[in-house]
Amino acid sequence: MPLGKRTASGVLGGVLGLVGLSAVAGVLVTATVTPAIAVSGYAASSAITLFDKLPSYLEVDQPMLPTTIYVDDPNSDEPYELASFYDQNRTPVTWDEVPQVMYDSILSSEDPRYYEHGGVDLIGTARALVNNAGGGDTQGGSSISQQYVKNVLIQECEKDSPDQETLLACWTKYTTADGAEGYERKLQEMRYAIAIEKEYSKNDILLGYLNIANFGGVTYGIEAAAQYYFGVSAKDLSIVQAATLAGIVQNPNYYRIDQPDNEVNGEANGYEAAKDRRNYVLTRLYEDGKITEAEYKEAHAAPVEPSIHPREKGCSAAGGSAYFCQYVKSVIESDPNYGPEALRRGGLNVHTTLDLNVQLPAEQAMRDNVPASMPGVQLGSTAVTLQADTGRILAMAQNTKFNESAEAPAGETSLVFAADQTHGGSIGFAVGSTFKVFTLLDWLEKGHSINERLNGVNRQAFQGFNCDGAPIPQTSKVGNFANDPGWTGSISQFTARSLNSGYFAMASRLNLCDIFRVADRLDVRTADPSTGATQKIMDREPGPFRILGSDNIAPMKMASVYATIANNGIQCQPKAIDKITNIDGEELPVPETGCEQKIAPEVAATAAAALSTVMNGGTGANANNYDGIPVIGKTGTHQEWQTSMVQASTKAATFVWVGNIQGEADLFHLYTDRGVVSNLRYAVSRAIQGAANVAYPGGQFPPADANLSRQILADLPSVIGQTVDQAKNTLWNAGFSPVVGEPVAGTQAEGLIESQDPGAGRVAAGTTVTIRPSNGKGSTVPDVKGSSLGDAMQAISGAGLNAQRGECDQKKGAGAGRVTGTNPGGGEIVPQGTTVSVNYEAAKCAGDDD
C-alpha cells in the first residue's frame, strides 16, 4: 500500500545517491544514443555533464481547472451549480477521496517499485531504453514521478496556448519527440522527478498524478473520469472500474470507452482494446497480491460497461438562467483580473447574485406569456430585476431558447437581450417613453415643479428647442398615443398619461443637451445601429424626438436608472457576482462595481412622486400588483414595434421589454392566446415584480420636495378685444393653454374676444383659459337700479332690448315705482332683442286691493 514517507533506499533508488544515479542515467542515455561508445569514459562523462546542466527545479503549479458558476439555493445550504467552463474537465480530490484499489491499480500497472525508487525506476528505464534502441516495441519506462513531471510540463505549456494547434504542439513537445531531443527530454524528466521527490512526499506525487492525468478527450483527473465514464465518484469505484481507468491512462485517447462507434475499441467488439488493457491491470493487481483470486476471476470475466455522464460545458447547462450565465461569463472574460483563460482554466468558483426566489417566477412568467417565436415576426422579450440599494442582478429571463450556433433557428439565440454588446452581444432596443425620465429629472434639477401646468396641446409650434443655446427646429408634429390631441396639464399628469406633446412642452423650456447629459451621467449608453459600437447619448445628434426614446439602449441600463430614483438618487452599478474563490477557498477580487450619489435626494423623491402616478391610475396600472408595496414606473412604446414596462419599489426594479428583434411588425395588431402582444409586458412585469416584492419588500417612498411640487402662479393677461389668433398667441407665450369656445353675443366687433375664463390676474401657471369671440350682436343691459320704473323701461328699450315689468314688492312711500333690479342683471351682455324683466317696488302694485 502507499506509504507516507520514503526509506533511505527509496531516496537512493538502489544506487549511491544523486551522483551515482546521474552517472548511471548518463550512461544509459549515452548508450541509447551512441551504442558504439557506450562504455567509453568520454560518453559517460559527457552524459553526466549534460544531466548536471539540466534544470533541476520544476514549479508545480495548479493544473487547469474548470470554472464553476453557482447560485445560492434557497432550499439548501449548498449552492446550486449553474454552469461550468473548461478546457479540461477536472475535479481535484484529496487522498481519502480515492479508494485504495485505484492507487493499487495505477502502481501495479505503471510503477510497481514506486515506493522503492527515488523518482526514477532505473530498472524500468534501462529495460525500456535498451528495448527501444534494439528496435523492439517502444516502451515508456517512466515512473509515476516522471509521468507527473511530464503532465505538469504539458499543463504549463497548455495554460498559455490560445488555440488547438498550439495545444497539440504542447502535447507533441513533451510526449512524442524523437531522436536525441527525445532522450534529452527523458533525461530532463528524470532530473525533475528526482527534484520533486525531495520536495514532496510519495503520496502527494501519486495523488497529484491522479488529479492531473488525462483520461481521454477533455476528461482529466480521477474524479472527473469516474464521473464521466461510470457516473460515480472516485471514492466509489469498483475493482473493475478502477482497473479500467488505470488502463485508460496508459494511452488515453486509444483506450477511452466513450466512442461506441470506434472500430478498434468500440461497442461492437466489447471495447476490446480497453478490455485487454484492463485485464492486464487486473493481472498485475492479482500477482502483486492486491486482490484475491476470486476478485480477479470475477473482474476479469466482466464486460466493459461504460455509463457515460458528460459534464455539460457552458451556459447551455443553465436552462432558463442561461442568459444570466452568459452575462456572468462576459463579466469574467472582460475583467482585467481574469479573462477568457481564467474562465476556462482558472478553477474559479463564482458565486452570483441571482435569487431563485425571483428568477424562477421570472422564467415562468416569460414561458406563460411570451412565445419563443411567432409567424411573421422575430419576437423577443427580456426581463431583468435589480436590487435597488446594491445593484445585484436578482433575475434575468428571456423568451428564447439559448443556442450559441450561428445557424440557430427562430426562437433560439445566444444574444443577451437585457445587456449591451460587451455583456452579451445585443445592441439594445428603443425603450420608448421610459426615456422620458431624463426630461423629468432635468426639469426638476432646473428647479421646476411637477405641479406646474403647461400647454401640451399637440402642435408644430413649440418654441425654444435648443442645445446649449443653438436652436433646433421641430420638423413635424409629435405623435401622441391614440391620436390624442393633447391638453394643458401638470407635469405629473403628463407623466401619468405619457403625453408626448406634454413632454415636448417641457423639453422646449429646457436645454436638450442637458437632458441627454442626465442620461450619460446615469451610465446610459446607446449603440450605433450600423456598427453596434457603444456611444454616449450626447454623442449623437440631439434632436427633440430623441427625448421620446428612439435610441437603442440595454434594458438593464434603464432598470438601473429607475432603481437609482427608488434608492434616493444613489446609483449602484449592476452587479452579477457576489464572491469568487479559488480551489483552496481563498477569496479573489470581484469585478469592481460601486454605488454613487447621481441624483439629489429631493429630486429623486419628487421624480418618484410623479412616476407613482403611472402605476396608480396611469398607463402602467395594469402592471401593478396592488400588494401593498408602493411602486413607481413608466411605460414605453416605440412606434408599434417595441414596448417596455419598468417599475420599482424602494428595494427592487424590474424592466420588461417585448418587441421586434428585427423588423417592424405591428405589436398592437398581433395576437397570442394571451392577448395582444403589446400588452404582454404588463403580465410579465406584474408577475416578476410581485415575486421581488415578496422577497425584497419595499417601503414608502420619501415625500416630494415642497419646492419641487409647489403650485406655480403666473400673471394671466387680458385678451378681451383681441382676435382669436392674437389671443391664443398671447396666452401661449404667457404659458397658458387657450381653448376657443363658441361665439357669444357681445359688444366687441364680431370675431374679437368678448370674454375669457378665468379673467386676468394671478392664477396657476399653465391654466386652461377659455376664450369666446363676439358675434357682434350683443347689447349691454343698462344698470337701472334705483331709477323710476318709467325711466328704466325707456333706457332698456333704448338699448335695443325688450323691457317688461317683473316682480313688484308693495312698499309704503315707494310712490309709482322704484327699480330694485333686472333679469338679466345690469352690465350683462345679451343678444339684441332679449327680454329684460324689470323688478321694482311701489306703494301699490297692480292688482292689489285698496
Structural features:
5-stranded antiparallel beta sheet, single chain, alpha+beta, 5-stranded mixed beta sheet, 35% helix, disordered N terminus, 850 residues
Short description:
By secondary structure, the protein is of the alpha+beta class. It is 35% helix and 18% strand.
Written overview of the protein:
Helix content is about 35%, strand content about 20%. With about 850 residues, the chain is of the alpha+beta class. α4 (about 100-110) packs across α13 (about 270-285) and α6 (about 145-160) crosses α8. The radius of gyration is 44 Å and the shape is rod-shaped.
The radius of gyration is 44 Å
Q: Which structural class do the helices and strands define? A: alpha+beta
Given as residue ranges, the uncertain stretches (5+ residues, pLDDT < 50) are 1-40, 135-139
Global morphology = rod-shaped
The major pleated sheet works out as: 5 strands, mixed
Total DSSP E strands: 34
Question: How much of the residues is beta strand, in percent?
Answer: 15-25%
Strand numbers in spatial order across the main sheet: 2-1-3-17-18
The portion of residues assigned to helices is 25-40%
Overall average pLDDT: 89
Helix tally equals 26
Distance between the termini: 146 Å
